[in-house]
Design a protein that fits this description.
alpha/beta; Nitrilase/N-carbamoyl-D-aminoacid amidohydrolase; six-stranded mixed β-sheet; 14 helices; 12 strands; 43% helix; globular
Length: 470
């Protein structure tokens, strides 16, 4: 029965993510997991946490199988579920919350740069914990969310008081970010009417749709035009007809156009066309099995679609784009998952641009989940974001992570609006990486302390690998 409850708790917790997006479910699910861990032996804990991990991700990540196949989807879920076993070696609210942070650290780091899509901080921007994001970041939100629910379980009324006081104290931390001016932006969404296996096969249709939408932008109406990822599948500097069309439109609108393309240097790059400066950035955090193929020969023998992925060369340097109205950094799709790029490096950016391509996952909840991640990044950095997609989710997001303007999915449209420039660094931006290290050090300290309390080496060995209880 304990294992059935573990799986049920995982399913309940997953309901906090899109497409259900019922955030209280996260606290119910994690609370259930903590109760099961309290009552289990070590071997039972390992099985409980593994089953929770499988159930926690199997539904929310179902969209992955629509492209790479069910076996790859299940393999990813099973692998990432094993990371939750780290919860098995500690006891008590603080250690359990620190263990969760360790789980998410492994999730976003391993293997091949990690896949931290299921971090719980990505699902809590529309909750009473929203104010915590610029103060303690996504890592801190995860830690306090787990800590609060476990304290209440262990200490009930006293735990609730401790949790509330802790959360109120966090509100006293100053954010120190101020409004600047306004930037008028146009976000171009090419649209989509059916599933596209990949944009390589639909390259000409994609660029035509985006140019058609761009021509609807009135002259002199915006300060910058933003195209999404993979709208251009060739180098616009090499194909002169494409380059001339961009330059012509930039002159007509009287604004530069930010374009993502396959550059001749082999990178997935973004360039600012119609601008006097040579401004460009190449994606550094590449998508495994999408933009590069680990163990290519093995993968291709399993899935023929892998042969279509020629692979990109990763970029090496960050870049701060400069315009007359403000500076920005662009995150190209998967880079939203990188704490370094999406949080730390945003300190000197006045606003954020996210360029993404969701054509492969037509009519799945991948679109909404990625948009939730972008909302969390806006809240964490206290920055406005312009989120532009080839197919859907194109939105303007404010500094609290709330969408204030959007256009319907799959439509060929342009979203015109204003983003505010924001000046200053949030505590999360400045100290978020250090906070994570402190929490991980806390976990290690608590584990070592627990082991040293035993009377012999053999007892310590059994605590970790044997039959000892909690």
């Amino acid at each position: 029965m304990i294992y059935l409850w573990a799986a049920l708790s995982g399913l309940i917790a997953s309901a906090a993510f899109e497409p259900i997006s019922f955030w209280p479910a996260l606290f119910l699910g994690i609370g259930g997991l903590y109760l099961l861990n309290k009552r289990a032996s070590l071997k039972q804990k390992i099985k409980v946490n593994l089953l929770f991990g499988i159930a926690f991700q199997i539904y929310s990540l179902y969209w992955i199988g629509t492209y790479v196949g069910w076996y790859a989807w299940l393999a990813l879920v099973l692998m990432q579920a094993t990371f939750l076993i780290v919860l098995s070696f500690t006891s008590g609210p603080i250690a359990f919350a620190a263990s969760w942070v360790l789980f998410e650290f492994i999730l976003r780091s391993f293997p091949f740069g990690g896949f931290g899509w299921s971090r719980i901080g990505f699902a809590l921007t529309e909750t009473p914990l929203n104010y915590l994001y610029p103060r303690i970041g996504i890592v801190g939100v995860a830690f306090l969310a787990v800590l609060a629910v476990t304290l209440i379980i262990d200490y009930r009324a006293k735990g609730a008081v401790i949790s509330i006081v802790s959360l109120l104290v966090m509100a006293l931390i100053p954010v120190n970010v101020k409004d600047g001016g306004d930037v008028r932006v146009a976000l171009v969404q090419g649209g989509q009417t059916e599933k596209m296996d990949n944009t390589f096969e639909n390259a000409e249709a994609a660029i035509s749709k985006h140019f058609a939408a761009t021509r609807k932008i009135p002259a002199g109406s915006v300060d910058i035009v933003l195209w999404p990822e993979n709208a251009v599948m060739h180098d616009p500097f090499v194909r002169q007809t494409t380059n001339q069309t961009f330059i012509s439109e930039a002159k007509r609108i009287n604004a530069p156009i930010l374009v993502n393309a396959n550059l001749k240097d082999g990178t997935n790059g973004t360039v600012l066309l119609g601008d006097d400066l040579d401004q460009r950035y190449s994606k550094r955090y590449l998508t495994p099995f999408g933009e590069f193929i680990p163990f290519r020969s093995i993968v291709e023998s399993i899935n023929d679609k892998a042969k279509r992925v020629s692979g990109y060369i990763p970029g090496t340097e960050p870049y701060l784009f400069k315009t007359e109205k403000g500076t920005f950094r662009t995150l190209i799709c998967y880079e939203l998952l990188s704490d370094k790029q999406a949080r730390t490096e945003m300190a000197d950016a006045d606003f954020i641009v996210t360029q993404t391509n969701n054509a492969t996952y037509f009519e799945t909840w991948q679109l909404e989940q990625e948009l939730s991640i972008a909302k969390a990044r806006s809240a964490e950095t206290s920055r406005h974001s312009a989120y532009v997609s080839t197919t859907g989710g194109t939105s303007l997001i404010d500094e609290d992570g709330s969408i204030f303007k959007e256009i319907p999915k799959y439509q060929n449209q342009v979203l015109i609006g204003e983003v505010k420039t924001r000046v200053g660094s949030t505590p999360a931006t400045q100290y978020g990486s250090y906070l994570e290290l402190v929490i991980l050090a806390l976990w290690l300290t608590l584990v070592v302390y627990r082991l040293t309390r035993t009377k012999s080496f053999w007892s310590r060995f059994r605590v970790v690998f044997g039959k000892a209880g909690s």
